[in-house]
């Protein structure tokens, strides 16, 4: 765990430790295979930014309570389920630097474990009468599905404009981060205006987060000394590419589209396209747009009273665009 993440967690550390214990209990099953897979998932958990967002949002407004814990667990259950399903859809053998569940147990088990986690999340909400939280998070999951399908449709046709791109990432990424902040707020207040403010804060953080992900594809891989180019290999149109295509000569644009469609696994051609995207200002433009969302998020955060939780949220917003992976 990085020093930055440790600082971010500090005001809510005790709640996160309790959350981790409760989450492990929540996914326990008497079915041996299911229990084995969920234990594997828990041991390889990520930075837990989404539960952190839930707890910080609640703590900025009031004291964290049982409903906050239920909200964080629901978010983590549904988020983990969507990651499992994503790995099947993408035929992904790796998750966070380890073998994915899909790689080890194949598609049927992976989908069923995802379904189990979704069901556990729904049951948790119903049993604790957290219907408002369930509505917030379910709406985000709906948007995530729509975003994935919109990206799939547009990538095939290669007609993604900047506005369509923002629509895709607002649904795919920002919607869940917005739900984290909104559900954290909703766990401690019924004020719809404040809950909406936190939802907007999460949306801005999520937009900056996804554009940063796009830019990470242009960082140098340690093993090869070259940019990774994974998004191009997977035929995902990102903001740097959209900008470059708009500003390329007819010949370069035609070549870039041909590489994207037909030679996306040719390392040399992909590397040429990555260099061309940078040359045409795609990376610089994406950085500019990322910072705009980042600055808007910081400005919105300042409208809430100063506290250790608010300082941690500010650190998290900065981390969103400064991280290296």
Task: Report a brief summary of the structure.
With 325 residues, the chain is mainly α.
Q: How many separate structural domains?
A: 1
Radius of gyration: 20 Å
Looking across the biggest beta sheet, what order are the strands in? 1-2
- CATH class label: Mainly Alpha
CATH superfamily: Farnesyl Diphosphate Synthase
The chain-level structural class is mainly alpha
Q: In total, how many beta strands? A: 2
Approximately what portion of the residues adopt beta-strand conformation?
A: under 5%
Query: CATH topology, what is it called?
Result: Farnesyl Diphosphate Synthase
Uncertain segments = none
Largest sheet report: 2 strands, antiparallel
Q: Helix count, per DSSP?
A: 15
Rough outline: globular
Run of helices and strands? HHHHHEEHHHHHHHHHH
Helical amount among residues, as a percent range?
A: over 70%
Describe this structure in words.
The protein has helices at residues 3-9, 13-26, 32-43, 49-61, 66-89, 101-127, 131-157, 162-186, 192-216, 230-233, 239-247, 250-262, 267-279, 282-301, 308-322, and strands spanning 94-95, 98-99. With 325 residues, it is mostly helical. The protein has one domain (3-322): Orthogonal Bundle (Farnesyl Diphosphate Synthase). A two-stranded antiparallel ribbon has the order 1-2. Strand 1 and strand 2 form a beta hairpin. Helix 4 packs antiparallel against helix 15 (308-322). The longest helix has 27 residues, at 101-127. The mean pLDDT is 92.
Task: List the main descriptive attributes of the protein structure presented here.
325 residues; mainly alpha; Farnesyl Diphosphate Synthase; two-stranded antiparallel sheet; globular
């Amino acid at each position: 765990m990085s020093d930055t993440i440790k600082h971010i967690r500090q005001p809510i550390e005790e709640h996160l430790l309790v959350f981790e214990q409760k989450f492990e209990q929540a996914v326990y099953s008497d079915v041996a295979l299911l229990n084995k897979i969920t234990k594997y998932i828990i041991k390889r958990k990520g930075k837990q930014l989404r539960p952190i967002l839930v707890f910080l949002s609640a703590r900025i407004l009031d004291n964290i309570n049982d409903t906050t814990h239920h909200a964080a667990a629901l978010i983590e259950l549904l988020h983990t389920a969507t990651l499992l399903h994503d790995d099947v859809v993408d035929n992904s053998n790796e998750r966070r630097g380890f073998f994915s569940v899909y790689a080890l147990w194949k598609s049927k088990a992976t989908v069923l474990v995802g379904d189990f986690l979704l069901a556990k999340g729904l049951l948790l909400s119903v049993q604790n009468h957290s219907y408002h939280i369930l509505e917030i998070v379910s709406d985000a999951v709906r948007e995530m599905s729509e975003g994935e399908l919109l990206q799939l449709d547009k990538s095939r046709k290669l007609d993604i404009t900047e506005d369509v791109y923002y629509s895709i990432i607002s649904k795919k990424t920002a919607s869940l981060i917005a739900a984290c902040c909104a559900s954290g707020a909703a766990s401690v207040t019924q004020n719809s205006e404040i809950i909406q403010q936190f939802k907007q804060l999460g949306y801005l953080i999520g937009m900056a987060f996804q554009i940063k992900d796009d830019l990470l594809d242009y960082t140098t891989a340690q093993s090869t000394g070259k940019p990774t180019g994974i998004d191009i290999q997977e035929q995902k149109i990102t903001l740097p590419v959209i900008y470059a295509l708009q500003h390329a000569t007819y010949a370069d644009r035609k070549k870039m589209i041909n590489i994207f469609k037909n030679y996306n696994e040719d390392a040399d051609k992909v590397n040429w396209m990555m260099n061309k995207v940078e040359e045409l200002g795609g990376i610089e433009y994406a950085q500019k747009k990322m910072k705009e969302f980042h600055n808007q998020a910081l400005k919105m955060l300042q409208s809430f009273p100063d506290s250790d939780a608010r300082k941690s949220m500010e650190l998290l917003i900065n981390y969103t665009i400064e991280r290296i992976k």
